[in-house]
Amino acid sequence: MLEFITQYPLITATLALVSLGTIFGGILGFAAVKFKTEGNPIADQINDILPQTQCGQCGFPGCRPYSQAIADGEAAINRCPPGGETTIQALADLLDVDAIPLDEEHGEEKVAAVVAYIHEDQCIGCTKCIQACPVDAILGAAKQMHTVITSECTGCDLCVEPCPVDCIDMIVEEESLQTWHWVLPDPIGRKVEIIATDAGLDEESERDRAA
Amino acid sequence: MRKIYSFHGGIHPPENKHQSVRTPIELAGIPEQLTIPLSQHIGAPSSPVVSVGERVLKGQMIAEARGFVSIPLHAPTSGTIDAIEDRIIAHPSGFPAPCIVIATDGDDHWIAHQGLEDYESLERTELVNQIRNAGIAGMGGAGFPTAVKLSIKPDIKITTLIINGTECEPYITADDVLMRERAQQIVQGAMILRHIINPQETVIGVEDNKPEGIASLQAAAKNTDIDVVQFPTKYPSGGEKQLIEILTGKQVPSGGLPSDIGVICQNVGTAVAIYNAIFAGEPLISRITTVTGQAVESPRNFDVLLGTPMDFLLEKAGYQRENNNRLIMGGPMMGFSTPRTDVPIVKTTNCILAPTESELPTPPPAQACIRCGLCAQACPASLLPQQMFWFSQGKEYEKLEDHNLFDCIECGACSWVCPSSIPLVQYYRSAKAEILQARRDNEKSEQSRARFEAREARLEQLALEREAKRAARKKAAEERAKKASSGEGEDPIQAAIERAKAKKAAQESS
Question: How far, in Å, CA of B200 to CA of B183, rounded?
């Protein structure tokens, strides 16, 4: 054995490398079959970032198909108006690409959250909006008045177009006591609602100073 | 002698407490109208059980608890229900909230009620129910339903019951006068709590700037095993977590509850309310509120009916509107300014502060952070206020959570020491709200995704079913055609002709 190695170093080295390659190739091949990833993990991660409005403004029928298209490199990351700048930024971070401004072609970013509202006295019960709703948030049946389940509505606008009597409006949710919250202070303004910045003087310490 | 610990940070703002303790507690009397907001506590708002025009007696339940984390409301005096509608309440947003408005009749006629003779013979759960039915919520500030706090899981052992008489915030003396004048009730209330919780020790913690209160508490607790402990004055030692650290040396874990380390804290005001509920059968319908500041002639403490308009109290204390630069609900550290004086006193209103401009000057504009680090030294929760300020400005919410933003108790110590007068707490409040909003949005989008996927699956299923049906029909038709062409069985056309003939014959014969 030793003799063979010393006599034919070139062949020995080649043999050693080939056998090593075979062993590791085998392991890798086995791992590739055994630990195969189901689906596309990137598409899932992208889908987690998207707002799930299912509005189709991106040109794809829902958030899942759009995330698949982004993962396949078929669509740009700036086609989601409901997500707006925040979503584009998050996608850019995830995919390690530059954030680009929102593509106006697919719509503008909405400032406030909206929900669909059906004017029930005008509804004729045609069920067209029910078929259009991507999240089953409209309740009703043929020749019966329809109504929107507000808590499930994503504000995607898709029900507005099919309505033959134009009885659906998108309304902005008004700020109320429940939705109100503190906002960041105006950095240059003097208006401060929280008082603790004042170092008020005590009567006694004033007296002490006077004395 | 009990060992006293300390907590990190803290500040010593001017106390300004002596102004309002010169006179004893004064009964505020009955205003013409009482406005009772349906949500005076943390949790679901109560739902009204009276209707407009109905006559109610003092102590009668006018709204019931809705859900577990909720409490009922009671009429503070007798009168008629004037309205159940949205009214402006004391809230920094200035938004209206649903309220029950009572036109008082001045008779102050009590509904039939009676206390429990011997509470010690009752079950714990029954006592907790009594407390819940009396509408008691934590009177120290947050207004968490007391019964919920007392419903401890059986596997958790409470070792220490702390009665919080610290009242560390400047100007406020509502708890101080309560300890001076109603020490007996506080101790009795603490005994009831002790009976419910069954801790190893019961401690009443008071800052050493209230010697009279401590003396009367000690006298009242003489023949009991309740320990009245005094400790050095420092703001915010009255914060629940801070007080627990002072008295036990233990820290409540981040994101945890005091009961996780075997401690329960209750305010002295709550103890008195519990005393009234158990011994007299009276629900929580009044509280002690301090009215103070240089813009009132005679600062003092009032025993005031819940729902009393703020201006009713201010007038009694000699309010000089022209000298007052802004009206503050709560103390100067954690309070908020309210633009209107017609808002009602609620279960958590411990102070109305009417300072003059020289007393609490309008804060100068915020300047740039000079990274002096004073805020980090002052923070009682050992956080890094300066870091969190940068992150709030940059809206880096993940980093804020990593820096334990939600452990911030919003005490205002950082803002108070800040040489650049940066309103730090407002940044944190805003960031907290944004993070909570993002969490809610996330939940909603999860839900939308689930619904979208369910719909997709359903549509696919329907399409498949339709396809299958069509295939089946096609197959059946093909088979029939095949049978016909191969001459097997009867010819369908022939059969139809036969049927028609038979029918015709039947019609003719009839």
Answer: 22
Q: Do B430 and A183 count as a contact with CB atoms less than 8 A apart? A: yes
Tokens of residue B249, six digits: 């040396």
Q: What part of A 182-201 touches B (C-beta under 8 Å)?
A: 182-185, 187-190, 192-201
CA dist B31 to B57, B313, B316, B344, Å? 16, 9, 11, 11
Q: At what angle do helices B424-485 and A63-71 cross, to 10 degrees?
A: 100
- Find the closest chain A residue to B90 by CA distance: A177
Domains of chain B: 18-351 (3.40.50.11540), 372-484 (no CATH)
Q: What is the mean pLDDT of chain A?
A: 82
Rounded (5°) CA angle B24-B167-B276: 60
In tens, the pLDDT along B214-272 reads: 999 999 998 888 999 999 999 899 999 999 999 999 999 988 889 889 999 999 999 99
What is the CATH number assigned to the segment(s) A41-106? 1.10.15.40
**Residue A107 Ramachandran class (φ > 0 left, ψ -120 to 50 alpha, else beta):** left
Nearest CB to A185; choose among B332, B427, B441: B427
Question: Which residue, among B182, A141, B423, B12, has the nearest Cα to B163 in the 3D structure?
Answer: B182
List the CATH code of the domain at A112-175.
3.30.70.20
Contacts of A54 in chain B (CB under 8 A): 448, 452
| Chain A residues 118-177 within an 8 A CB cutoff of chain B | 134-137, 152, 154, 175-177
Task: Give the pairing of strands B96-104 and B26-27.
Answer: unpaired
Q: Which helix (H) or strand (E) holds B62?
A: strand B61-64
Q: What are A112-151's pLDDT values in tens digits?
A: 778 899 998 889 989 999 999 989 999 988 888 899 998 8
Mean per-residue pLDDT for B318-338? 87
Could you give the strand order of the β-sheet that contains B61-64, starting from the edge strand earlier in sequence?
B47-48, B61-64, B73-74
Contact A136 B362 (CB under 8 A): no
Q: Is the pLDDT reported for residue B184 higher than 90?
A: yes
- Per-domain residue ranges for chain A? 41-106, 112-175
